[in-house]
Structure formats: C-alpha cells, structure tokens
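Class, discuss our next protein.
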Amino acid sequence: MAVENLLPANFGYAIFTYMYSFFMLSYLGLQVGGARKKYGIKYPTMYSDKEPIFNCIQRAHQNTLEVYPQWLVFQTIAALEYPLVASVLGVIWVTSRFSYAWGYYTGDPAKRMYGVYGYIGLLGVILLSISVALKLLGVL
C-alpha cells in the first residue's frame, strides 16, 4: 500500500516540519560543540563552574531536547487529523526554539523568554491531539 493512501492529504507539510526541527536540533547541537571548543569544556562534563555562557548554550540545547519527544508525539497525532494547522503550529514551535536559544546565548537566562511564543505551537498541538482523542472515543 502506498504511503499517500495511508496518510492524510497535506501530511507532506508535517514531514517538512519534522525536517525543519531536525535542522534546528542540529544547529543547537553544533552551537554546544563550538562552545565546548571555545571554552575548553571536555566531554563528558555537562556544565562549567567557570564559564556561565557555556552553561547557557548547553541549557538552550538541553531544554529543547527535554521537551522534544513530547512535542513529536503531539505534533504527529495532531498532523494525522489536521496536517496543515499542525504544521503551522509546529513551525511556530520550532522557530521559537531558535529565539529561545539566541536569547539564552546572550548569557542572560531571562532573555530565553524571547522564545515564549513557542507555547502557542506546543499548546496548539496538544489541544489538537485532545480533539483527535475525543473523536476516536466518539465524544466529538
């Protein structure tokens, strides 16, 4: 059976959203690698007692990794029923992680809030996932 017969029309937008998230995670990871080299932080050390900027760069990546699995699940559930809306919400969330990181990279952790708009994307796909669950249960 062909994949286009299994997935809804417009699911390709969701696939591109996943690809965008891959590039975002790669970018954040490369920033950590560059900071390790710049500040002399060797593996497996996660944080530095002497370089707070490194810690901010590391936390921006680590925090994104902490929420990423949940976002993937809700993004996928939402995209199976609402592919276009879920993709827009996904792009909002992924883009916000860049803003979050760039704010954090200043060394002022409060500036990570530049990415707070990402909650629109995250909460949006959570709400869409609830809608899908209710439809499957016959409530909607």
